[in-house]
Amino acid sequence: MPPTDGLWSFQGAGDVGRVAVMLGPTELRGGSTVLTRTVEAIETGPLGREVRSRLDTAVVHLDLLPSFADARSRPSGIALLATEPAAAYTITPRVLIAAYVRCLDAGAPVIRYLRRDERGHVAVDAMLRRETESRDE
């Protein structure tokens, strides 16, 4: 199920400082049968390095991702098998946002932010919680 629109965030430690993702409402553009939405992400590292990604025509698709636990505990530079299905929005070739129904520990809705490095290995993997409520709720 695609995630609800609004602002989602993660405050981390170590290599990841903060990740914020804004999901716009879904839109059906004239003459199309595909729902799209604007998705924007900002990742700020502990030294102030920013990674910004935006796509105004994001379309949800099925993707296979490495499991979250494996990606978090992996040794640096080790490729992981993508075995976990998820509804995802690919923002850039290296950044995607995936929908998860429940958080691994608290049962709250979350989305997953996954950024790969230039070799395709997982560089940042974080679960984000919603900060704003949807207009429909």
Describe the protein:
The radius of gyration is 15 Å and the shape is globular. The mean pLDDT is 82. The protein has one helix spanning 68-73, and strands spanning 6-11, 18-23, 27-28, 35-44, 50-58, 61-65, 84-90, 95-100, 110-116, 122-130. Strands 1, 2, 3, 4, 5, 6, 7, 8, 9 and 10 form a ten-stranded antiparallel sheet that branches. The chain has one domain (6-130). A hairpin with a 4-residue loop joins strand 7 and strand 8 (95-100). The chain has 137 residues and is mainly β.
Shape label: globular
Helix share, percent: under 10%
N-C termini distance = 16 Å
Mean pLDDT: 82
The number of distinct β-strands equals 10
What's the structural domain tally?
Answer: 1
Strand content bin: over 45%
State the order of secondary-structure elements, H for helix, E for strand: EEEEEEHEEEE
Given helix and strand content, the structural type is: mainly beta
Rg for CA atoms = 15 Å
Task: Please work out how many helical segments DSSP would assign.
Answer: 1
What is the assembly state of the chains in this entry? single chain
